[in-house]
Amino acid sequence: MRLYTISDPHLSFGCDKPMDIFKGWHDHVARLEENWNRVVSDEDVVVVGGDISWGMSLAEAKADFAFLNGLNGKKIILRGNHDYWFSTYAKTTAFFEQNGFDTLSFLFNNAFKAGENHVICGTRGWVSEHGEQVDKKVLNREAGRLRLSLEAGKKLGGEPIVFMHYPPAYYIYECTEILDVLKEYGVKRCYYGHIHGNGHRYAIDGEYQGIDLRLVSCDYIDFTPVEVEF
């Protein structure tokens, strides 16, 4: 079993939201499918870091989940800022079961074992680019969800590897609420998405305050899942 990650597939089989209009996104679904199945086997696990589907409801996102379900490996997905189909964890997991999406699991206030010595943890996160006070409620909620996930990981045992949608730090901005939790639990690796196009030049892709931050948005990694070594 190997562990991979990729973020922001922005699928739209059930709605009219083509990504091909953006530079570098031509034929992105075909490229994603080909690259994914080339590197990932059915024994592997892939963490998908949010912005899964443009669907506004679970019904609209169904075809996108079916596409993901049919790709090689087990998938652990988390919510991104454009995943408007999400309402609750219970409804999402029930939807997966009802539709036979048996390769899909959801990362939300929980954790998953990865091999003998590592655990998969994470949450959506949030970015407060200018420290706006109005974001405090959201920031604290996401920090709390990250803490719940890391606590669940402690019970499973092993080094926590964190996956988020938003970056804990970007350009000259940082999310101290999230970074503080990562440091408290001794997290050394964090993978994130959300950043696209010209924003790549400002992304932190390396060590930051003792944590290895890695950008894995689809268009940054050429629509090919990145292996997470453990």
Fold topology:
Blueprint: E1 3-6, H1 28-39, E2 45-48, H2 58-70, E3 74-77, H3 89-98, E4 104-106, E5 112-114, E6 118-123, H4 136-156, E7 159-164, E8 169-170, E9 173-174, H5 176-184, E10 189-192, E11 206-208, E12 211-215, E13 226-228
Parallel strand pairs: 1-2, 2-3, 3-4, 6-7, 7-10, 10-12
Antiparallel strand pairs: 1-13, 5-6, 8-9, 11-12
Helix pairs in contact: 4-5
Strand fraction band?
15-25%
- Biggest sheet overview: 6 strands, mixed
Number of helices: 5
Q: What's the helix-strand series?
A: EHEHEHEEEHEEEHEEEE
Q: How confident overall, as mean pLDDT?
A: 94
CA radius of gyration:
16 Å
CATH homologous superfamily title: Metallo-dependent phosphatases
Residues in helices, as a percent range: 25-40%
Shape: globular
Strand order of the largest sheet: 5-6-7-10-12-11
The stretches of 5 or more residues where confidence is low (pLDDT under 50) are: none
- When the domains are counted, the total is 1
Briefly characterize the structure.
The protein is α/β, with parallel strands linked by helices and 230 residues long.
Characterization of this structure:
Residues 1-197 form the Calcineurin-like phosphoesterase domain. This is Metallophosphoesterase. InterPro entries: Calcineurin-like_PHP, Metallo-depent_PP-like, Metallophosphoesterase_sf, Pesterase_CT488. The chain is of the alpha/beta class and 230 residues long. It has one domain (3-228): Purple Acid Phosphatase, chain A, domain 2 (4-Layer Sandwich). The protein contains 5 helices and 13 strands. It has helices at residues 28-39, 58-70, 89-98, 136-156, 176-184; strands at residues 3-6, 45-48, 74-77, 104-106, 112-114, 118-123, 159-164, 169-170, 173-174, 189-192, 206-208, 211-215, 226-228. The strands form 3 sheets. The chain has a 6-stranded mixed β-sheet with strand order 5-6-7-10-12-11, with helices on one face. It has a 5-stranded mixed β-sheet with strand order 4-3-2-1-13. Strands 8-9 form a two-stranded antiparallel ribbon. Helix 1 (28-39) links the parallel strand 1 and strand 2 (45-48). Helix 4 packs parallel to helix 5.
